[in-house]
Protein: Alpha-1,4 glucan phosphorylase
Organism: Methylocapsa polymorpha
Amino acid sequence: MDIKVEDRAASDADAAAAIKEAILNKLIYSVGKSLEAASSHDWFVATAFVARDRIVERWLASIDEVNRTGRKQVYYLSVEFLIGRLLFDALTNMEMVEPTRAALFALGVDLDELREVEPDAALGNGGLGRLAACFMESLATLSIAAFGYGIRYDHGLFRQRIKDGRQLEYPEEWLAFGNPWEFQRPEVDYEIGFGGRIEAEHQPDGTVKHVWLPGETVEAVAYDTPIAGWRGAHINTLRLWSARAPDPLRLDKFNSGDHVGALMDQVRAESISKVLYPGDTTPAGQELRLRQEFFFASASLQDLVLRHLRQHGGILSLADKVAIQLNDTHPAIAVAELMRILVDLHDVPWRDAWAITQATFGYTNHTLLPEALETWPVPLMERLLPRHMQIIYLINAIHLDQASKLADSTGERLAAISLIDEAHGRRVRMGHLAFLGSHKVNGVSRLHSDLLKVTVFRELDAVLPGRITNKTNGVTFRRWLKEANPGLTSLLTEVVGDRLLDDARLLEKVAAVAGDAAFQERYAAERRANKVALAKLVRHRLGIKIDPDALFDVQIKRIHEYKRQILNILETIAVYDMIRAQPMRDWIPRVKIFSGKAAASYATAKLIIQLANDVAKIVNADPTVRGILKVVFLPNYNVSLAERIIPAADLSEQISTAGMEASGTGNMKLALNGALTIGTLDGANVEIREKVGADNIFIFGLTAEEVEAHRHRGIDGSDAINRSAKLAEVLEAIASGVFSPDEPDRYRGLVDILIHHDYFMVTADFESYYEAQRAVFRRWRDKRSWWRAAALNTAHMGWFSSDRTIAEYAKDIWDVPVKPPGRG
């Protein structure tokens, strides 16, 4: 052993010994357990506390540096932060994984078992929240001073169970045993108002000052979680707000015997931070959602304005020192709230306040679905936020007055760009408010950003050209490569070098060895090990045995008609029918893996989940199939489950109706880990194809332009069905109850939609999708060709790092410097 290796080994041993002692101290003095009495959860908490201590030291140093230099800060407002488990994230970014593993091993504890003990933070639904989590990590990695602001949901998104094929929703008890990563800040407490009245005070100079006197107040209490960047170079804060009643108990009512009524104010207040996305099909549900959004937007703005005043003295410099990014329309009410703070509380003239507001805000749009661009009934807004409606009316009046002076102004255009939609019962368009109140509006893939200009924001872009820009999404490779797939990461590091996770662009070096037989053998071996692990998980959770040598065909995402899980199911049934009809053919073993949640009130999406499970039940039990085809639906999709599925996937299903998926990030994670994509030219699939090459991706179906033209001609699916005997047979089988013998008509309505109202082009794309799947089979038979394509996917995914995305935001929208990781 040479001296350097010996020194390194001694250093590692010292680090492990120090961590071992620290874990024991935390177990005894913070958890309050002896070694003999400690449970797995106790060991997890003790280990988390040790990692947190190391983070906190650098966190405080990062805060001190930002305060000392007075540099500009970024504030990321998002109703979701799908951060998942944090133990391995913290240990990885603080470069503590191996010494911690050794320390725990010496104590008779397995670090990987502790990983499974930690609950997933239930703070998000899907891509929007996971993107926010990746962005928080990259903000810290690039040493950008930043805060994430959101809501500390008691239960977050529901826990999904499947019973008799049906989705059932239960509260997600992620906080049942506390959260070792957060710090409660009871001193950081803001009053959030609702309702009430507005008084006009006439000032000596002849102006009128408006004073909002809320009829109800709720307290927002802060909980801080430090977010470590790669190598711990910088630590940022995720600040989540929890709702509390100012007076949690009406003592007079309690003493009079009304014990339930005494707690009503507390229940009403705390409902705000109880559950992510409460059902909004009722007026009460709509009101709760609006209360949630204003609650966290107002608390966040009050907090950042107070911080700015403490650091810089005056409010007029806000836009020079603060950049606020609105993650979709959920925080859009912040535009009106910042105007209220500036005009009403700090006496900034309207024109100056509007200039500051626009210069401060940026808005990220995540959808082209008109129904997903939030609107709120005007009566609800006027009752709940009366002063904000006044401000919105005035913003709109000035905006329409300026637009009416343009040469091509028409009544139709003014109606289209108005903040108030008069055609559907008078509703406030929150996407329009975010657009007007921001200096930049970005889509999240090149195609999506281009479509924004010709669809949902066509008229606004014509009136305010140049505001829409593009920032294609990215994912953090520390989480989705190193943590999720350590074996493959080790192999890639041998080729690329130790700086792989500092600079994802270095992955390009893998292309040079993609065709090398020895590399392919090791690459395939790492992938197979992941498939074996996933097969064990499926067997444990579902009792279904799957073959790790089969093609793992994966579709994991929120269940929605435009994401077209139904198209995948139709092809599955078609193949099932062919296997039974032609058993002599040399079939490729394939496992169809589905996972995802449907919104609790989305009946059609829940029916699709049931169909997937019903098909799985029939196919998996059919002896004539001989295990050649298996169908699996894994319940309760979350970050941790994704970390198990993605490294094991062979084929990545990205099959949304072209023009409807804004970007996708699952497509990036899967391709990074070596899955080949089958998909439409939608969202970031377009850019993925450009990077990995058309020969290394399976593209099918109508383009966005063709989808639009097809819809103009009609959305009846009969012609496509008549042209495809396979599709007709599959739909007839579903409609007649082949897969639901206990309730033959269960799916007749679903089939009727595809026949008569196929808005999402399922029937139009079926044959193209079916043929693309046959191309997948042909490639899978040629293993050298398959593994070369898989390696090239990994090699060319470096551009899709969230570090790149955040660097673009920093340069083009926020005007803040970045410090690349691993340098200086």
Observations:
- The chain has a mean pLDDT of 95.
- The domain at 484-800 is CATH 3.40.50.2000 (Rossmann fold).
- DSSP finds 33 helices and 22 strands in the chain.
